């Protein structure tokens, strides 16, 4: 037992209680026939919480963590502290990149040995913990070798390195019984079109993703393959811009029934969408998977990865998640980092606890809106005309026959109110 | 002959000449085996130039045009003046929406009669003019009936009205021997997800576009069907967000070989892309069609539709157009409006003349960059590794075999310079 | 009594009641020694609610109002309906531009006659209504004569016209016992620097504002003069960009103790600020006056003027208002328009009712946070070091003596946590 | 002589020559009575060129420089290579932060000793070089002690540390005969208003700047004190948001005639302004000083600090610089960093060379536009009405007398064209 979180007691549901308890998150409370914990499926992210030193483009490390340092001992200490926090939070899941959990070696082989050793260490820890693995992923963006891309690199040897890395990470995820495997293409994009062959890089990316899917089937991994879209940052343009873009990409490479989306609120914002838009779109296209529930500042153009704090927004997100049928293998990951001024261990626990409560409140409001039914009834009523057999028949017709009917019937349709403010008022009754 | 442009003489190529001549646009000059006019294929847009009254969200009409008024006489006067300007500019093409050229009637039938009469009038004028029709399109966004969408309207009768309108506009485009038919979905989107059935509306939009394609074949129209993407404005979210989004949509509805893109610089900007990105992407996906060469202010969030004025940017755009093989049925449309303070007739002519010159300069620079070959040689050199048989074989392989090779060969790839600044310097030699 | 709002009953506080009652707004409830109505001081805006036809840059009028038309009879009907809605809402205040309430005449004199007649009509209506005038203002942006500015126009005759208009509007505001007079410089800016003399226009604007202040004193108007900042739209750049910009302008022209800010949430957002930033800054500079409580969509670049709907955000705003001492002459104006698809009379009433409830909830949360005191105690504790006499003395010192002390004492200050997430959690206990 | 730039020859003016010569920058060519070098006054920035390791928020160091390492030997090697590049480029100026040039010590005293030793080393190098110091500045943002601000820190000891640092940097700048001293408040702002006392921090910042001005006079430093505005990044909000904001701040603290602006193109863009706006505004307020001629990507929300590459934009900037009277103590600094993929020494030289050429072309175009005179003649003509004695008298008048004249004379001013497109066409003749 490290003393990093000394004096911090395990958090429990305590609606009127002490500072660090949960006021709203009550894992065992049942909604729509399922426990809240099983609906929300919270995950703690290893990288931001335990590996990020607090730097930004204008300043260096602010956090002093006893486990910072590139040795195996430090990696084990980091894992110990991580699981201590998972326990404090009663977190059902966690997530990692390979680079979060193991020291970088001088060679691929050495990095792999370090990685495999730590995977075993994590496996042992998981045996005595309730916390399971929501997903694993490979960091194919941090090291300078990836500066021009991983799968989309102009150098085929970096494609090879990346493929070998993904293999190792998929193996490890499978070994730890992970629920999903994620790919985020932080360097799969470009800084300038002048040095970029867009078409070639797209082919490389498509083949790489196919290989990951093929390998999943080969090893019998039952979890989902998830792609996480983001429009830009670190690169000027990233190929996995948003859900709609990735959908087209999946269709081109025949992967639309093999791959799902891991949608981050902050990345939706950066792409010019609301989070609920991305969720609803993914659901409507049959590719909804999981979420990263960390917000972006609406007014910065970079990825602030903040813990969620706005209940009405979170409620609209879970409303879409519930309408999509809820999570199967997916969950609610906090891909969120503390502000770099939040130096204390208690900040890390409080940030997660506050976020879990915000999500619990939003989720409960979403359930209430769904069970109330007014919103969906009004939506159905708006489109009711399309349920008529005439309307359905029209969709089977052609322009000429429709034009003939317009002429013959002298139709002159009148607009009807969209009732946006009334709908917003209804939402506000629940949040 | 109206006196609207009195005292303005037809413009000609006059590199050192008077204010309103072309300093750079020389239609007959040959580049890469084709006349400049045949490369650039300039088109004047009827709506902004002749139908827009100059209003903005905080102010009303500023332009006083003698043809403003909803009568057939006014519509004919408008056509007369338009062709006078086409002649002054020696413009090879023009474009219209139905609503630009005819007065709205009280009924569909009356609007259609007005429209057909004006189409005949335009046809007659075209007989004595060099100016041809680049494309026609239907305005399915201005009238209040379209406030909640056209094809994606919750009311099937508005779908019907829209379909009948598109039929009429396709017929007219065909009759006038138009080179393309365009669809821009200004209201095909939503203001709030709370009242929207995203999935249903997507199906409606997909079927509508299929009908347009089917009708094209039925009537034997040989031009291209073009979709013009835009991310937002007027609606909060528009379904045809950008090229990548439309590609996914086309794939879903089996239309990717039937429909091409009409890409507007300003809409690319609003979607968070550079214009050249959208061009290169469309080309790489095989759906490049035509362009609207009007810029957006980078720092406004709305669609400013300004005439192009930055030669280096225009050069990069035509570089992508040329790499895509140049225009076939497409062309360079100015979907641009005067600033609302530019009241005088000469402003309208000068704006087009300046834009044509900017395009001509950019085009010539693009040709020179291509013929010089340095940029493409450097690009090829960057990806040369992928031309090896080993690299090609790797793409046929799988993760496990690649990982085995990485382990066996101990590969440790080193990054190489992306040379962005040197490439930008090279571009600056030509612009 | 018009029948526009037929079937809509006056709204009252009814926490568990019918659709259109107030669930949270309870005018007579006392907080911090003052009635809620006297804290919030709600105002309905005449223009958006009764004069705006529903157009946007891509579409025309959507609203069909029986009072639309440029006659005095219509203007009186509009006033009748407006007061009917004020009564339904129990609104303590309203606001107008001259152009909202009277038909435009062919000459200045005729417009003035229309205006004065309507002012008298409003005065009569106010006698039998509880609704008072929060502020009046002149529309110096809608008519084409203002297209290049009002006070900052290159044509001095338009300066004159604008000055005469402001005089008339100040007279009328005074006559109706308005609480404030507002200036919003929608066209006081530029489209292009190429045709603009920034320095000269700044001098014109400064003198114009001085004249308004002088005139206030001359006629004995006791209300405040308010300037409403906005960064852009309609023009590319507006001189009253944000609070900080206007403060510098007031300092230059010696007006910082004569003029206060009317701060709109949406304009704060467009300027890249949070609303609470603008409020806190104005308060810290001694120029806080009043608010326009209408939100902007964070992801559009234009002014969406939506009714507020996010309680946590509104709570943070009222927290700053309360810290600034609350409103004196100012109030909470809804400079908000219905979405253009919200066609029905009930939409107009519901939008205001929902907004008033959102504000009431936010206000109550703000009061609770202030009374709880944790936030302010933590803030004070963070700056406690500055309360020491040494720290205060340092501010009286100079670089050399401070440097000597740093050297002598070997100081090595260590950073302390900023506790942002914990503070956000505290806020979430109240909203 | 290091071998870092081996094989790279000194660059000279060679309009038709080799890759790395100047095609446009000809230091001795005379424009408006002054040598081009004396107009442009180029400076190389030490930090980005020699101290930045190439990291971004998602990836670490990409550059391998032989001088990386925190020792005095490395600092001297860095200085050697820097001056080798200054010589290659024939750069008249350079700039530094304290943290760029010396290793950080364990204590203030040790850092100061390192700093003073390196200042002496630079002084010696400058004796045998043409390159002078444009400005020095203190890095008060990189180290974790500054994470919550320097002058505006809640901890007065950090204010003290900052003051002592600025003293040392001003002393050193004075010793090296620097032309200016710059302050950029990268951490003078906040992440959240919840933990911030805006008013108190403003007072701290104001007093700090006063102290710097007082110290300048005390030591007899004749250069200018420059403040560099930036709206955000690294903090969510920075107090020196833009030129207008800083002007208000200077007025509040009585510093408007003591402090000038160092305006960066990229920061102007991030604040929602064009670069030329910030230049023209500073000039009109009498606080124009110097420029950082590095562009921002218009479509990223973070500070990309790219070398300039767009000649038309640069021309408009120098047009404002020339209209402001040109530089006195100021100059053209490249606060620009290579793209992190530009690994090679030649990239560093080429980036500067290309930027200098872009500036030279833009400058020459600006001179030509000024000497041609059309733009200014059209501007004067637009405001000619204000030169009449009537108009001037009106500005001395009051609202009532102006209103009386409007009534009496029945004035009805008509708008005149703003001629934006024609003006843009004129600019395009020169760029
Ligand atoms: Co993120
Ligand atoms: Co994420
Ligand atoms: Co457009
Ligand atoms: Co267009
Ligand atoms: Co507004
Ligand atoms: Co307002
Ligand atoms: Co910068
Ligand atoms: Co700078």
Order the strands across the largest sheet of chain A as they lie in space: 3-4-5-6-8-10-11-12
The helix fraction of chain A, in percent, is 40-55%
Radius of gyration of chain A: 23 Å
CATH class of the largest domain in chain A: Alpha Beta
Question: With helices defined by DSSP (H or I, 4 residues minimum), what is the helix count of chain A?
Answer: 16
Strand and helix order of chain A: EEHEHHEHHEHEEHEEHEHHEHEHHHHH
CATH topology assignment of the largest domain in chain A = TIM Barrel
Give me the CATH superfamily of the largest domain in chain A.
Answer: Divalent-metal-dependent TIM barrel enzymes
Total individual domains of chain A: 2
Average predicted local confidence, pLDDT of chain A: 97
Say how many strands of chain A there are: 12
Q: Write out the distinct hetero groups bound to the structure.
A: cobalt (II) ion
Relative strand content of chain A: 5-15%
